[in-house]
Amino acid sequence: MVGWIVSLATVLGLALVIRHERRQARSLVERSKELERLSSELLRVNRMKSEFLANVSHELRTPLNAIVGFVDLLREGVYGELAPRQVKPVERIEASANHLRHLVDQVLDLAKMAAGRLEIHTETIDLRPFVLDVASEIESLGAALPRIRTDPTHLRQILVNLLGNAVKYTNEGGIVIRTRLVDTLPDNGPASARPSYPSNPWIGIQVIDTGIGIHPADQSRIFEEFEQVDAGPRGNSAERGTGLGLAISRRLAGLIGGMVELESEPGKGSTFTLWLPVDPADLPAAPK
Predict the structure, then answer these.
(1) Distance of CA 51 to the CA centre of its chain
(2) 3-class SS of residue 118
(3) 219 has pLDDT over 60
(4) Is there a contact between 40 and 80 (Cβ–Cβ < 8 Å)?
(5) What is the C-alpha to C-alpha distance for residues 206 and 159, in angstroms, rounded to an integer?
(6) Which of 14-28, 56-70, 235-249, 261-275 has the lowest mean pLDDT?
(7) CA 179 and chain centroid, separation
(8) What CA–CA distance (Å, rounded) separates 89 from 83?
(9) Long-range CB contact pairs, 232-240, < 8 A, 24+
């Protein structure tokens, strides 16, 4: 009798365990389906966001271009000479329209990158005159720089963004652009901090400022979309910006085969370095 009771208890126990395992299995299947549904929904929402940004930005560019074009005609006197009292308001209209067009272009570029539709056109350029053309005053720029194969339009955009960011946050001191040619990328942190890059020569274009600096806790966040540190007042859009410049710069750098790194300390300024790969055949010849 006792043996029969023990056997029955064992069977009931096994039945309960099997029932519990089946419930857990069903629960895992349901959770897996829910995660798949949420993942699909997030992808759909992200795609819709990118398409919305691209469509809105494209539609805004047409009237903005018309505004800028007619302002140019007004300033050129096509519709008659401007009265002295009209000159300043027309200049304000032109500056505001150009600023808005720049912001729209940033959003459109971001939407294209998110959708994988940003075109890259690579060509060989001489780096020194190119950088000199971007910034009118360069300090400590090496005399002999290599030629590189890259997309000059997007390279210019990255440098303008980095310089604009430095100007925005540097009220005292100055801004310097330096170049640094290395045999391989320097190890600036843990191996997991950045992806693996080929062991070939690299040229670093550094934008160094003496501005407010960036706290270590914010140094990753500033490369995210629409993120800003110590932004200006909301009523001053030109001062506040959109928080897209650095995010676009890092993405563009990746698309042209390079990367953007930051070194900064609060109160002591920041150094943004754009690293670009160099073909050894394009290195400047050593002096005899």
Answers:
(1) 19
(2) coil
(3) yes
(4) no
(5) 9
(6) 235-249
(7) 21
(8) 11
(9) 237/99, 237/103, 238/99, 239/168
- The maximal CA–CA distance of the chain, rounded, in angstroms, is 115
Residues 253, 213: Cα–Cα separation, whole Å: 22
Q: 140: left (phi > 0), else alpha (psi -120 to 50), else beta? A: left
Q: What are phi and psi of 212, to 5 degrees?
A: -75, -15
pLDDT of residue 288: 45
Question: Tokens 């070939």 correspond to what residue?
Answer: 200
Q: For residue 14, give every residue at least 6 positions away whose Cβ sits within 8 Å of its Cβ, in sequence order, or none.
A: none
Fill in the amino acid letter for 154.
H
Q: Please return the burial class of 19, using the count of CB atoms within 10 Å of its CB with bins 0-12, 13-18 and 19+.
A: exposed
Q: Where are any strands of DSSP class E within 119-251?
A: 123-126, 147-150, 175-182, 202-209
| Extended strands (E) in 109-215 | 123-126, 147-150, 175-182, 202-209
Distance between CA 260 and CA 194 in Å, rounded?
A: 11
Sign of CA dihedral 186, 187, 193, 197: positive
Residue written as token pair 């271009």? 65
d(CA 118, CA 153): 12
Rounded distance between C-alpha atoms, residue 17 and residue 140, angstroms: 74
**Residues paired with residue 259 on neighbouring β-strands, in sequence order:** 275
What number of helices (H) and strands (E) belong to the chain?
Answer: 6, 6
Q: Which two tokens stand for residue 208?
A: 């160094």
- Is residue 133 scored above 80 in pLDDT? no
- Say if pTM beats, i.e. exceeds, 0.70: no
Structure tokens at 133: 């053309």
* Distance separating the N- and C-terminal Cα atoms of the chain: 105
CA distance 213 to 67: 37
Cα distances (Å, whole numbers) of residue 29 to 23, 26, 258: 10, 5, 42
Question: b/e map of 221-232 (b: 16 or more CB within 10 Å)?
Answer: ebeeeeebeeee
